[in-house]
Write a structure and sequence with these properties.
Blueprint: E1 3-9, E2 15-21, E3 29-36, H1 41-57, E4 63-70, H2 77-90, H3 92-96, E5 100-104, H4 110-119, H5 134-152, E6 161-165, H6 169-180, E7 184-190, E8 193-196, H7 203-213, E9 225-227, E10 239-242, H8 251-254, E11 261-262, H9 272-280, E12 284-285, H10 288-291, H11 294-303, H12 308-333, H13 337-357, H14 361-374, H15 380-399
Length: 401
Protein backbone atom coordinates (compact mmCIF):
# COMPACT_ATOMS: atom_id res chain seq x y z
CA UNK A 1 0.00 0.00 0.00
CA UNK A 2 1.23 3.49 -0.83
CA UNK A 3 -0.34 6.91 -0.24
CA UNK A 4 0.21 10.14 -2.12
CA UNK A 5 -1.26 13.49 -1.13
CA UNK A 6 -0.99 16.80 -2.99
CA UNK A 7 -1.63 19.93 -0.96
CA UNK A 8 -2.56 23.22 -2.62
CA UNK A 9 -3.61 26.04 -0.28
CA UNK A 10 -4.44 29.52 -1.54
CA UNK A 11 -3.97 32.70 0.46
CA UNK A 12 -1.48 35.48 1.10
CA UNK A 13 1.19 32.78 1.18
CA UNK A 14 0.01 30.02 -1.19
CA UNK A 15 1.34 26.57 -0.39
CA UNK A 16 2.08 23.66 -2.69
CA UNK A 17 3.25 20.52 -0.97
CA UNK A 18 3.31 16.76 -1.32
CA UNK A 19 3.31 13.76 0.99
CA UNK A 20 4.42 10.42 -0.45
CA UNK A 21 4.14 7.36 1.80
CA UNK A 22 5.70 4.58 -0.26
CA UNK A 23 5.76 1.68 2.22
CA UNK A 24 4.90 0.88 5.81
CA UNK A 25 6.46 -1.20 8.55
CA UNK A 26 4.36 -1.51 11.68
CA UNK A 27 1.97 1.03 10.15
CA UNK A 28 4.60 3.80 9.90
CA UNK A 29 6.69 5.39 7.15
CA UNK A 30 9.75 7.58 7.76
CA UNK A 31 11.31 10.21 5.53
CA UNK A 32 12.57 13.76 5.37
CA UNK A 33 10.76 17.00 4.56
CA UNK A 34 12.30 18.88 1.61
CA UNK A 35 11.79 22.64 1.37
CA UNK A 36 13.20 23.62 -2.03
CA UNK A 37 12.08 24.80 -5.44
CA UNK A 38 12.97 21.53 -7.25
CA UNK A 39 9.94 19.63 -5.91
CA UNK A 40 7.35 17.93 -8.08
CA UNK A 41 4.83 15.14 -7.56
CA UNK A 42 6.86 12.68 -9.64
CA UNK A 43 10.18 13.44 -7.96
CA UNK A 44 8.72 13.19 -4.44
CA UNK A 45 7.20 9.79 -5.20
CA UNK A 46 10.48 8.57 -6.65
CA UNK A 47 12.35 9.89 -3.63
CA UNK A 48 9.91 8.12 -1.29
CA UNK A 49 10.46 4.83 -3.11
CA UNK A 50 14.20 5.43 -2.87
CA UNK A 51 13.75 5.63 0.91
CA UNK A 52 12.07 2.22 0.88
CA UNK A 53 15.00 0.81 -1.09
CA UNK A 54 17.48 2.56 1.20
CA UNK A 55 15.94 1.12 4.36
CA UNK A 56 15.78 -2.26 2.67
CA UNK A 57 19.41 -2.10 1.54
CA UNK A 58 20.44 -1.29 5.12
CA UNK A 59 18.15 -4.07 6.41
CA UNK A 60 16.31 -1.63 8.68
CA UNK A 61 12.62 -2.43 9.40
CA UNK A 62 11.35 1.02 8.44
CA UNK A 63 8.84 2.17 5.81
CA UNK A 64 9.88 4.78 3.25
CA UNK A 65 8.37 8.24 2.78
CA UNK A 66 9.12 11.79 1.64
CA UNK A 67 7.36 15.10 2.05
CA UNK A 68 8.01 18.36 0.28
CA UNK A 69 6.97 22.00 0.33
CA UNK A 70 7.73 24.14 -2.71
CA UNK A 71 9.71 27.12 -1.42
CA UNK A 72 11.01 29.79 -3.79
CA UNK A 73 14.54 31.12 -3.21
CA UNK A 74 14.53 34.22 -1.05
CA UNK A 75 11.43 33.30 0.96
CA UNK A 76 11.56 35.00 4.35
CA UNK A 77 11.12 33.38 7.76
CA UNK A 78 7.47 34.40 8.07
CA UNK A 79 6.61 32.86 4.70
CA UNK A 80 8.41 29.63 5.59
CA UNK A 81 6.65 29.38 8.94
CA UNK A 82 3.26 30.03 7.36
CA UNK A 83 3.88 27.35 4.72
CA UNK A 84 4.99 24.84 7.37
CA UNK A 85 1.92 25.48 9.52
CA UNK A 86 -0.52 25.16 6.64
CA UNK A 87 1.15 22.00 5.36
CA UNK A 88 1.29 20.53 8.88
CA UNK A 89 -2.42 21.12 9.35
CA UNK A 90 -3.18 19.55 5.96
CA UNK A 91 -1.25 16.35 6.67
CA UNK A 92 -2.17 16.36 10.36
CA UNK A 93 -4.08 13.03 10.26
CA UNK A 94 -0.98 11.22 8.98
CA UNK A 95 1.25 12.88 11.59
CA UNK A 96 -1.09 12.29 14.52
CA UNK A 97 -1.61 8.60 13.73
CA UNK A 98 2.14 8.07 13.34
CA UNK A 99 1.76 6.95 9.73
CA UNK A 100 4.28 9.61 8.72
CA UNK A 101 7.36 10.29 10.85
CA UNK A 102 9.15 13.36 9.43
CA UNK A 103 12.80 14.29 9.58
CA UNK A 104 15.18 16.94 8.29
CA UNK A 105 16.02 17.04 4.61
CA UNK A 106 17.31 19.54 2.09
CA UNK A 107 16.11 23.00 3.05
CA UNK A 108 14.56 22.00 6.38
CA UNK A 109 15.84 22.04 9.95
CA UNK A 110 14.94 20.48 13.27
CA UNK A 111 13.11 23.73 14.14
CA UNK A 112 11.06 23.39 10.94
CA UNK A 113 10.04 19.86 11.91
CA UNK A 114 8.94 21.13 15.33
CA UNK A 115 6.72 23.76 13.65
CA UNK A 116 5.26 21.11 11.35
CA UNK A 117 4.42 18.81 14.27
CA UNK A 118 3.08 21.63 16.44
CA UNK A 119 0.71 22.59 13.62
CA UNK A 120 -0.76 19.09 13.89
CA UNK A 121 -1.02 19.38 17.67
CA UNK A 122 2.05 17.25 18.40
CA UNK A 123 5.12 17.66 20.57
CA UNK A 124 8.66 17.58 19.13
CA UNK A 125 10.00 14.14 18.27
CA UNK A 126 12.05 12.37 20.94
CA UNK A 127 15.81 12.30 20.37
CA UNK A 128 15.52 8.64 19.35
CA UNK A 129 13.61 9.63 16.19
CA UNK A 130 15.63 12.70 15.14
CA UNK A 131 18.05 12.40 12.22
CA UNK A 132 20.16 15.46 13.07
CA UNK A 133 23.47 13.76 12.22
CA UNK A 134 22.26 11.91 9.14
CA UNK A 135 23.92 14.32 6.69
CA UNK A 136 27.32 13.78 8.27
CA UNK A 137 26.98 9.99 8.16
CA UNK A 138 25.62 10.16 4.61
CA UNK A 139 28.85 11.89 3.62
CA UNK A 140 30.88 9.16 5.31
CA UNK A 141 29.03 6.56 3.25
CA UNK A 142 29.49 8.51 0.01
CA UNK A 143 33.23 8.58 0.63
CA UNK A 144 33.36 4.85 1.44
CA UNK A 145 31.23 3.85 -1.56
CA UNK A 146 33.23 6.08 -3.90
CA UNK A 147 36.59 4.69 -2.78
CA UNK A 148 35.29 1.09 -3.01
CA UNK A 149 34.06 1.75 -6.55
CA UNK A 150 37.38 3.34 -7.53
CA UNK A 151 39.32 0.39 -6.14
CA UNK A 152 37.15 -1.96 -8.23
CA UNK A 153 38.43 -0.06 -11.28
CA UNK A 154 42.04 -0.28 -10.17
CA UNK A 155 42.23 3.31 -8.92
CA UNK A 156 43.99 3.87 -5.58
CA UNK A 157 42.43 6.24 -3.08
CA UNK A 158 45.53 8.40 -2.65
CA UNK A 159 45.51 11.07 -5.34
CA UNK A 160 41.99 10.35 -6.60
CA UNK A 161 40.40 13.41 -8.18
CA UNK A 162 37.00 14.11 -6.62
CA UNK A 163 34.37 16.73 -7.48
CA UNK A 164 31.40 17.38 -5.20
CA UNK A 165 28.20 19.11 -6.25
CA UNK A 166 26.68 20.71 -3.16
CA UNK A 167 28.50 21.72 0.01
CA UNK A 168 25.76 21.16 2.54
CA UNK A 169 26.02 18.68 5.39
CA UNK A 170 26.43 15.71 3.04
CA UNK A 171 28.86 17.29 0.60
CA UNK A 172 30.95 18.83 3.37
CA UNK A 173 31.25 15.52 5.21
CA UNK A 174 32.18 13.66 2.02
CA UNK A 175 34.81 16.31 1.19
CA UNK A 176 36.38 15.97 4.63
CA UNK A 177 36.58 12.18 4.46
CA UNK A 178 37.95 12.09 0.92
CA UNK A 179 40.57 14.72 1.83
CA UNK A 180 41.60 12.97 5.05
CA UNK A 181 42.04 9.71 3.12
CA UNK A 182 44.48 11.32 0.68
CA UNK A 183 42.16 11.99 -2.26
CA UNK A 184 42.27 15.36 -4.03
CA UNK A 185 38.99 17.25 -3.82
CA UNK A 186 39.58 19.45 -6.85
CA UNK A 187 36.17 21.15 -7.12
CA UNK A 188 33.07 21.84 -5.06
CA UNK A 189 29.94 23.81 -5.87
CA UNK A 190 27.06 25.58 -4.17
CA UNK A 191 24.15 27.56 -5.56
CA UNK A 192 26.52 30.55 -5.71
CA UNK A 193 29.24 29.01 -7.85
CA UNK A 194 31.94 26.39 -8.38
CA UNK A 195 35.41 26.46 -6.88
CA UNK A 196 38.18 24.65 -8.82
CA UNK A 197 41.76 23.89 -7.85
CA UNK A 198 43.41 21.11 -9.86
CA UNK A 199 46.04 20.65 -7.16
CA UNK A 200 43.36 19.97 -4.57
CA UNK A 201 41.35 22.39 -2.45
CA UNK A 202 42.32 23.22 1.11
CA UNK A 203 39.30 21.35 2.45
CA UNK A 204 39.81 22.00 6.20
CA UNK A 205 40.09 25.75 5.68
CA UNK A 206 37.22 25.76 3.18
CA UNK A 207 34.89 23.95 5.56
CA UNK A 208 35.96 26.20 8.44
CA UNK A 209 35.05 29.33 6.48
CA UNK A 210 31.81 27.73 5.29
CA UNK A 211 30.59 27.81 8.90
CA UNK A 212 30.49 31.60 8.72
CA UNK A 213 29.88 32.22 5.02
CA UNK A 214 27.58 29.39 4.02
CA UNK A 215 27.12 28.89 0.27
CA UNK A 216 29.06 32.09 -0.46
CA UNK A 217 32.31 30.43 0.64
CA UNK A 218 32.94 29.46 -3.01
CA UNK A 219 33.23 33.16 -3.87
CA UNK A 220 36.26 33.68 -1.62
CA UNK A 221 39.58 34.29 -3.34
CA UNK A 222 42.61 32.22 -2.47
CA UNK A 223 41.04 28.77 -2.69
CA UNK A 224 41.03 28.39 -6.46
CA UNK A 225 39.29 29.49 -9.64
CA UNK A 226 35.69 30.74 -9.39
CA UNK A 227 33.34 29.29 -12.02
CA UNK A 228 29.55 29.26 -12.53
CA UNK A 229 27.58 26.67 -10.48
CA UNK A 230 26.72 24.52 -13.50
CA UNK A 231 30.42 24.12 -14.37
CA UNK A 232 30.97 21.48 -11.69
CA UNK A 233 29.67 18.52 -13.71
CA UNK A 234 31.86 19.44 -16.70
CA UNK A 235 35.17 19.20 -14.81
CA UNK A 236 37.11 15.97 -15.61
CA UNK A 237 37.38 13.85 -12.46
CA UNK A 238 37.71 10.31 -11.16
CA UNK A 239 34.66 10.50 -8.85
CA UNK A 240 31.73 12.87 -9.28
CA UNK A 241 29.51 13.16 -6.19
CA UNK A 242 26.16 14.88 -6.83
CA UNK A 243 25.08 15.93 -3.32
CA UNK A 244 22.57 18.66 -4.10
CA UNK A 245 19.21 18.75 -5.87
CA UNK A 246 17.32 15.91 -7.53
CA UNK A 247 17.84 15.51 -11.29
CA UNK A 248 20.92 17.71 -11.39
CA UNK A 249 22.29 15.38 -14.09
CA UNK A 250 20.15 15.44 -17.21
CA UNK A 251 20.37 14.44 -20.85
CA UNK A 252 21.61 17.99 -21.52
CA UNK A 253 24.76 17.77 -19.36
CA UNK A 254 25.39 14.01 -19.18
CA UNK A 255 27.30 14.01 -22.46
CA UNK A 256 29.97 16.35 -21.13
CA UNK A 257 30.58 14.49 -17.88
CA UNK A 258 34.06 12.97 -17.73
CA UNK A 259 34.20 10.70 -14.67
CA UNK A 260 34.98 7.08 -13.91
CA UNK A 261 32.49 6.87 -11.04
CA UNK A 262 29.34 8.75 -10.12
CA UNK A 263 28.67 8.37 -6.40
CA UNK A 264 25.53 10.26 -5.33
CA UNK A 265 24.87 11.78 -1.95
CA UNK A 266 21.54 13.10 -3.25
CA UNK A 267 18.46 11.00 -3.91
CA UNK A 268 17.32 10.70 -7.55
CA UNK A 269 20.33 12.67 -8.82
CA UNK A 270 19.82 11.96 -12.52
CA UNK A 271 17.08 11.46 -15.06
CA UNK A 272 16.49 8.06 -16.65
CA UNK A 273 17.75 9.37 -20.00
CA UNK A 274 20.96 10.66 -18.45
CA UNK A 275 21.50 7.37 -16.64
CA UNK A 276 21.17 5.39 -19.86
CA UNK A 277 23.57 7.71 -21.69
CA UNK A 278 26.21 7.44 -18.96
CA UNK A 279 25.86 3.65 -18.73
CA UNK A 280 26.38 3.37 -22.49
CA UNK A 281 29.61 5.33 -22.08
CA UNK A 282 30.86 2.89 -19.45
CA UNK A 283 30.63 5.18 -16.39
CA UNK A 284 30.26 3.23 -13.14
CA UNK A 285 26.99 4.52 -11.64
CA UNK A 286 26.42 3.70 -8.00
CA UNK A 287 22.70 3.57 -7.08
CA UNK A 288 21.74 6.47 -4.85
CA UNK A 289 20.29 4.29 -2.08
CA UNK A 290 23.55 2.30 -1.97
CA UNK A 291 25.93 5.26 -1.95
CA UNK A 292 23.99 7.42 0.50
CA UNK A 293 22.55 4.84 2.91
CA UNK A 294 25.13 5.82 5.53
CA UNK A 295 22.80 8.53 6.84
CA UNK A 296 20.00 6.24 7.98
CA UNK A 297 22.41 3.53 9.10
CA UNK A 298 24.59 5.94 11.07
CA UNK A 299 21.66 7.78 12.62
CA UNK A 300 20.14 4.48 13.70
CA UNK A 301 23.35 3.52 15.50
CA UNK A 302 23.85 7.00 16.94
CA UNK A 303 20.34 7.06 18.36
CA UNK A 304 21.01 3.63 19.84
CA UNK A 305 23.76 5.17 21.94
CA UNK A 306 26.94 4.44 19.96
CA UNK A 307 29.55 7.19 19.91
CA UNK A 308 30.10 9.30 16.78
CA UNK A 309 33.63 8.06 16.01
CA UNK A 310 32.56 4.45 16.43
CA UNK A 311 29.50 4.95 14.22
CA UNK A 312 31.50 6.66 11.47
CA UNK A 313 34.01 3.80 11.42
CA UNK A 314 31.26 1.17 11.21
CA UNK A 315 29.39 3.08 8.49
CA UNK A 316 32.55 3.44 6.41
CA UNK A 317 33.38 -0.24 6.74
CA UNK A 318 29.82 -1.47 6.07
CA UNK A 319 29.17 0.77 3.06
CA UNK A 320 32.52 -0.16 1.49
CA UNK A 321 31.84 -3.86 2.09
CA UNK A 322 28.35 -3.71 0.58
CA UNK A 323 29.49 -1.64 -2.41
CA UNK A 324 32.34 -4.03 -3.20
CA UNK A 325 29.98 -7.02 -2.99
CA UNK A 326 27.42 -5.33 -5.21
CA UNK A 327 29.96 -4.53 -7.92
CA UNK A 328 31.33 -8.06 -7.80
CA UNK A 329 27.87 -9.64 -8.02
CA UNK A 330 26.77 -7.39 -10.89
CA UNK A 331 29.89 -8.27 -12.86
CA UNK A 332 29.40 -11.98 -12.19
CA UNK A 333 25.76 -12.04 -13.36
CA UNK A 334 26.45 -9.44 -16.11
CA UNK A 335 23.72 -7.06 -15.02
CA UNK A 336 23.64 -3.37 -14.12
CA UNK A 337 24.43 -2.30 -10.58
CA UNK A 338 21.02 -0.67 -10.32
CA UNK A 339 19.01 -3.74 -11.28
CA UNK A 340 20.93 -6.00 -8.89
CA UNK A 341 20.73 -3.43 -6.07
CA UNK A 342 16.97 -2.86 -6.50
CA UNK A 343 16.29 -6.59 -6.46
CA UNK A 344 18.46 -7.07 -3.36
CA UNK A 345 17.05 -4.05 -1.50
CA UNK A 346 13.45 -5.08 -2.22
CA UNK A 347 14.06 -8.59 -0.94
CA UNK A 348 15.80 -7.30 2.20
CA UNK A 349 12.99 -4.82 2.87
CA UNK A 350 10.32 -7.51 2.66
CA UNK A 351 12.34 -9.79 4.94
CA UNK A 352 12.91 -7.02 7.52
CA UNK A 353 9.24 -6.04 7.40
CA UNK A 354 8.12 -9.65 7.83
CA UNK A 355 10.43 -10.22 10.80
CA UNK A 356 9.36 -7.01 12.50
CA UNK A 357 5.62 -7.57 12.00
CA UNK A 358 5.63 -11.29 12.84
CA UNK A 359 3.28 -11.92 15.75
CA UNK A 360 5.29 -14.51 17.69
CA UNK A 361 5.72 -13.78 21.44
CA UNK A 362 9.38 -12.95 20.93
CA UNK A 363 8.64 -10.55 18.08
CA UNK A 364 5.83 -8.86 20.03
CA UNK A 365 8.31 -8.27 22.85
CA UNK A 366 10.89 -6.89 20.43
CA UNK A 367 8.31 -4.53 18.90
CA UNK A 368 7.34 -3.32 22.36
CA UNK A 369 10.99 -2.67 23.19
CA UNK A 370 11.49 -0.80 19.91
CA UNK A 371 8.41 1.28 20.67
CA UNK A 372 9.79 2.22 24.09
CA UNK A 373 13.15 3.09 22.51
CA UNK A 374 11.56 5.22 19.78
CA UNK A 375 9.63 7.20 22.38
CA UNK A 376 12.95 8.08 24.00
CA UNK A 377 12.16 6.31 27.28
CA UNK A 378 15.43 4.34 27.58
CA UNK A 379 18.29 6.32 29.22
CA UNK A 380 21.27 6.72 26.89
CA UNK A 381 23.83 5.19 29.33
CA UNK A 382 21.68 2.04 29.41
CA UNK A 383 21.07 2.15 25.68
CA UNK A 384 24.75 2.29 24.67
CA UNK A 385 25.81 -1.28 25.62
CA UNK A 386 22.53 -2.67 24.23
CA UNK A 387 23.14 -0.79 20.98
CA UNK A 388 26.69 -2.09 20.65
CA UNK A 389 25.53 -5.65 21.28
CA UNK A 390 22.66 -5.35 18.79
CA UNK A 391 24.73 -4.00 15.90
CA UNK A 392 27.71 -6.28 16.53
CA UNK A 393 25.37 -9.29 16.44
CA UNK A 394 23.45 -7.99 13.46
CA UNK A 395 26.51 -7.35 11.31
CA UNK A 396 28.04 -10.71 12.20
CA UNK A 397 24.82 -12.38 11.04
CA UNK A 398 24.76 -10.38 7.80
CA UNK A 399 28.36 -11.22 6.97
CA UNK A 400 27.51 -14.94 7.01
CA UNK A 401 24.47 -14.56 4.72
Amino acid sequence: MSIFLEVKIKGDVPVTGYLALDSFVGGAAHGGLRMTDDISADLLQRAAHTMTLKYGWARLPVGGAKAGIHITPGSNAAERTSALRKFGQAIGPYLRTGMYVPGEDMGSTEADIEILLASAGLRPLPESLIYTTSGMYTGVGVYAAGVAAALSLGLACKGLKVTIEGLGNVGSSAAKWFHDAGARVIAVSTINGTLLNENGLNVPQLLSERQALGDEVVLQSGFGDALPPESLVHIPTDILCPCAIMHSITIDNAGSIIASVICPGANVPMTDEAEEKLLNRGVLLLPDFVANCGGILGSSMSRAGLRREQVATIVSRRVAHETTNLIGTARQVKRSLNSVAIETATQRFLEAKSRYEHRSPARVLIRAAVGIYRRGLIPRPLLRPIGRWYYDNRFRTQDTM
